[in-house]
Write a structure and sequence with these properties.
Elements (H helix, E strand, L loop, with lengths): L3 E5 L4 H12 L5 E4 L4 H11 L6 E4 L2 E4 L1 H9 L3 H5 L2
Parallel strand pairs: 1-2
Antiparallel strand pairs: 1-3, 3-4
Keywords: Cytoplasm, Electron transport, Redox-active center, Transport
Protein name: Glutaredoxin
Family: Belongs to the glutaredoxin family.
């Protein structure tokens, strides 16, 4: 399965929803909590150009946040992105 990376914070409802969808699809993901680490938040902002969480990558592709993740799933595109 393709590597999934998700930048999160501890009390983020959108982060929880994104992780819930990934877990429902039995997708393992690397979670990076930026809530207490300004260097990691800066890394996320530099890579994504955004300051909100979650920020999600599937492989090398930045797909955006929770809304974009769910839109990919509704459009039937998410599953194919998850397989190498």
């Amino acid at each position: 399965m393709t590597t999934v990376t998700i930048y999160t914070t501890q009390f983020c409802g959108f982060c929880a929803a994104a992780k819930r969808l990934l877990k429902a699809k039995e997708v393992e993901f690397d979670e990076i909590d930026v809530g207490r680490d300004s260097a990691l938040r800066q890394e996320m902002m530099h890579k994504s150009g955004r300051h909100t969480v979650p920020q999600i990558w599937i492989g090398e592709t930045h797909i955006g946040g929770c809304d974009e993740l769910y839109e990919l799933d509704r459009a039937g595109k998410l599953d194919s992105m998850l397989v190498p």
